[in-house]
């Protein structure tokens, strides 16, 4: 839940209520064994209530770009693959593994017998329509170009034609319906993580007739959506909704393995209120733990905690003249105490990040990417001041005012206030104007590059370091801060191309790219790698968290008796 989005996990709270898993892949929480799942008492209602910290920005798979959207979409929809209980991609809408040509660029999928929630069959054309819609420049999908470009044949050319205001043909995209049950996908080049790719929500199908009939109303509320996944939304009144309901989808092909009948979600942004609701038995799960509450639940069986694969950083918009100066960026990146932020403000197990690619995410021959590439842009006030003075001199200024776009949740406000104080204290002449806005507004402002600084984060979309590195290529779909470096672009191009099937060389190219982004350019200012903490009813079993894609799955959940 990059995503994205910028398919970013834009910081809304200390811990998103929708969370990414630790790097073991999938993780069944609260001692969720298969035996326990199968022992759900027949007289125990299979339903639960949970709290979320933000509204759902969109339920359109093509327009989704944040972890909240991707997680709910991932529970009501399904692609060719889906992540299983261990976080591994397995065939879903695909009836078994595809046929693959010798050079691993053409995949032929046979679809299983599956239905939409209105009774229509899921067909190969549903995938063609959705993928073409995602790459169509007219749609302005924030994730389509990012997920497809350089991977699905023809995607990059369509995106470029749109940017150049030239004609393009969506039928040149490498996806074709041979018949209702046969889908052919052509890649630009071999992609080692193709299964992860086809499990991601951007690649889910859409019913063309339904979408076109609904027009602008499509995905505006629960009634204007179709579902082919484990659940369907029976209540959701749109992007401002403070409550929504998921119920078991009886038309789902694997419905016999879905035990949970109903999930009710309410939005609560205040951590104290969320915890009070949990303690009063009004909700069964909440991820809204403020830092001062985490120690109180240490050792409590109701709290689950882990270090996940999400990294947070300051984005510095180079449309701003001052932030286009590398010395100013380096000064900002080294002027705040990450250790203090992690221990005193977050205080939830999160750790300081002096990197882009997280710890314990990818490794080569047993050596972690992070261990091999070390730390960069470490907190150092003296060095920060030197860069600050040099930058001001180059700009011909003695002081600067920079806008900081912040979140509106309790936890976000604490983090943002801390950052403002640190930067103003350690960089003489800097004034930080802090503005706190809701999640949806932040996405809009990010898309429009209407900010100077903002705290943002990223959780990987597939199990490869390129999921982080690809964010910052020049004019990339997620690079909405004006960063550009030809050498960086070339390294990413090689990593995705000629080095894609050469693990050692690929690893080294991505490490060099990270050093360019951080050590040379300070393109972003890393802040912390997130730890996640949730409170969950001990009787609620089978929650599976993921390190990439949807934050977690409700498919295998059950409510046990006391």
Topology:
Layout: E1 27-28, H1 34-38, E2 47-52, H2 67-76, E3 81-83, E4 89-91, E5 99-100, E6 106-110, H3 124-135, H4 144-148, H5 155-163, E7 175-179, E8 182-186, H6 194-198, H7 208-214, E9 231-235, E10 243-248, E11 262-267, H8 271-279, E12 285-286, E13 303-316, H9 326-333, H10 338-346, E14 351-352, E15 363-364, E16 367-368, H11 369-373, H12 381-395, E17 400-407, H13 410-426, E18 430-437, H14 439-447, E19 453-458, H15 466-469, H16 486-496, H17 503-520, E20 524-536, E21 540-541, E22 544-545, E23 552-553, E24 558-559
Helix pairs in contact: 9-12, 16-17
Domain Solute-binding protein family: 88-479
Subcellular location: Cell membrane
Pfam families: SBP_bac_5 (PF00496)
What descriptive keywords fit this protein?
peptide transport; alpha+beta; 2 domains; transport; disordered N terminus; four-stranded antiparallel β-sheet; lipoprotein; D-Maltodextrin-Binding Protein, domain 2; Dipeptide-binding Protein, domain 3; single chain; globular; 562 residues; 17 helices; Peptide/Ni-bd; protein transport
């Amino acid at each position: 839940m990059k995503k994205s989005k910028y398919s970013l996990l834009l910081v809304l709270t200390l811990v998103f209520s929708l969370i990414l898993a630790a790097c073991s892949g999938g993780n069944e929480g609260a001692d969720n064994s298969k035996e326990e799942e199968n022992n759900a008492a027949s007289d125990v209602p299979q339903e639960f209530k949970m709290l979320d910290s933000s509204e759902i920005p969109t339920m359109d798979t093509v327009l989704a770009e944040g972890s909240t959207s991707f997680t709910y979409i991932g529970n009501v929809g399904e692609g060719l693959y889906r992540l299983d209980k261990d976080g591994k991609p397995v065939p879903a809408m695909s009836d078994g593994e595809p046929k693959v040509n010798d050079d691993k660029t053409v995949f032929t999928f046979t679809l299983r017998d599956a239905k939409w929630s209105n009774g229509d069959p899921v067909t190969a054309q549903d995938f063609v329509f959705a993928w073409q819609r995602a790459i169509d420049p007219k749609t302005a999908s924030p994730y389509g170009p990012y997920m497809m470009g350089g991977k699905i044949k023809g995607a990059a050319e369509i995106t470029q034609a749109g940017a150049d205001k030239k004609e393009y043909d969506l039928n040149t995209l490498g996806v074709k319906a041979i018949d209702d049950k046969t889908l052919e996908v052509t890649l630009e080049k071999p992609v080692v993580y193709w299964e992860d790719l086809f499990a991601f929500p951007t690649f889910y199908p859409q019913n063309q007739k339904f979408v076109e009939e609904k027009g602008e109303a499509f995905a505006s509320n629960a009634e204007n959506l179709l579902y082919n996944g484990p659940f369907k939304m029976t209540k959701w009144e749109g992007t401002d909704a403070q409550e929504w309901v998921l119920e078991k989808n009886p038309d789902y092909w694997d419905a016999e393995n879905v035990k949970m009948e109903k999930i009710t979600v309410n939005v609560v942004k205040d951590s104290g209120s969320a915890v009070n609701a949990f303690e009063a038995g009004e909700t069964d799960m909440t991820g809204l733990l403020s830092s001062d509450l985490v120690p109180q639940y240490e050792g409590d069986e109701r709290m689950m905690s882990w270090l996940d694969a999400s990294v947070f950083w300051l984005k510095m918009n180079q449309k701003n003249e001052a932030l286009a100066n590398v010395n100013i960026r380096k000064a900002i990146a080294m002027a705040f105490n990450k250790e203090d932020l992690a221990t005193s403000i977050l205080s939830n197990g999160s750790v300081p990040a002096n990197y882009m690619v997280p710890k314990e995410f990818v490794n080569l021959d047993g050596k972690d990417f992070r261990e091999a590439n070390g730390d960069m842009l470490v907190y150092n006030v003296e060095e920060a001041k030197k860069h600050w003075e040099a930058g001001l001199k180059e700009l011909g200024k003695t002081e600067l005012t920079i806008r900081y776009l912040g979140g509106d949740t309790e936890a976000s406000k604490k983090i943002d206030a801390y950052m403002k104080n640190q930067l103003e204290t350690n960089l003489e002449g800097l004034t930080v104007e802090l503005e706190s806005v809701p999640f949806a507004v932040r996405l809009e402002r990010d898309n429009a590059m209407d900010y100077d600084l903002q705290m943002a984060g990223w959780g990987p979309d597939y199990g490869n370091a390129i999921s982080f590195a690809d964010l910052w290529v020049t004019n990339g779909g997620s690079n909405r801060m004006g960063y550009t470096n030809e050498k960086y672009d070339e390294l990413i191009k090689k990593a995705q191309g000629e080095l894609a099937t050469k693990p050692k060389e690929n690893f080294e190219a991505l490490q060099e790219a990270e050093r360019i982004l951080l050590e040379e350019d300070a393109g972003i200012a890393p802040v912390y790698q997130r730890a996640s903490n949730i409170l969950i009813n001990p009787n609620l079993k089978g929650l599976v968290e993921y390190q990439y894609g949807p934050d977690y799955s409700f498919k295998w959940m059950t409510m046990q008796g006391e």
